[in-house]
From TrEMBL:
Pfam families: Nitroreductase. One of its GO terms (molecular function) is oxidoreductase activity. This is Nitroreductase. Keywords: Oxidoreductase. Belongs to the nitroreductase family. Signal peptide: none annotated. Residues 18-76 form the Nitroreductase domain. InterPro entries: Nitroreductase, Nitroreductase-like. It comes from the Bacteria.
Length: 187
């Protein structure tokens, strides 16, 4: 296995540059079992506070029973585009210890975010786009999949191949604030 080539002048990785949140997916595109496993492994291997790994995923591929169960709980805004993705993943954070109100990890949501970011970049590296979203009924999804109270249904990620309309990629704006605008302090 070879390491990534390191450019002489550091630059943003091409996968990060091309990342966007598509709102139109190629409804004929599928994701292989091997690609699903690779995406999940990227999340599994993400760093977490104290190696707590406070994440879990519900995976539904378009056309399967899990996907159908997920889609029924989407809000109107996401129901217009997310079902066309090849796969929808429900992202869960472990927030409590078993049978108590004690917090499992102060960093559970942060760590879940890292796992999802790793999954997103891994997907991009194998030609799969991703759109992270929160437009769904959290309580209904938790009930649908019998999620215990120590776990929180947090977000979802739609994975698939972005469909292109003539002349444009349909998705959320890629406009970003400048580096100086997001840097609070720097020597």
């Amino acid at each position: 296995m070879s390491a990534c080539a390191i450019p002489v002048v550091p630059e943003v990785h091409p996968a990060v540059l091309r990342r966007h949140s598509p709102m139109l997916f190629d409804s004929g595109a599928t994701i292989s079992d091997a690609a699903v496993d690779t995406i999940l492994d990227a999340g599994r291997l993400a760093p977490s506070a104290g190696n707590s790994q406070p994440w879990a995923f519900v995976v539904g591929r378009r056309g399967d029973a899990v996907h159908t169960r997920i889609v029924r709980h989407l809000a109107g805004s996401s129901a217009r585009w997310a079902p066309g993705a090849s796969m929808i993943v429900v992202n869960l954070a472990r927030v409590l210890l078993d049978d108590s109100d004690a917090i499992y990890s102060d960093f559970a949501h942060y760590d879940l975010g890292q796992a999802v970011a790793h999954m997103t970049l891994q997907a991009l590296s194998i030609g799969v786009d991703a759109h992270q979203f929160r437009a769904f009924d959290q309580d209904a999804v938790a009930a649908e999949f019998d999620v215990p109270r120590e776990w929180e249904v947090t977000t979802m990620t739609a994975f698939g191949v972005a469909a292109h309309s003539p002349g444009a990629v349909v998705g959320v704006s890629r406009e970003r604030r400048e580096r100086d605008e997001v840097t609070w302090a720097r020597a």
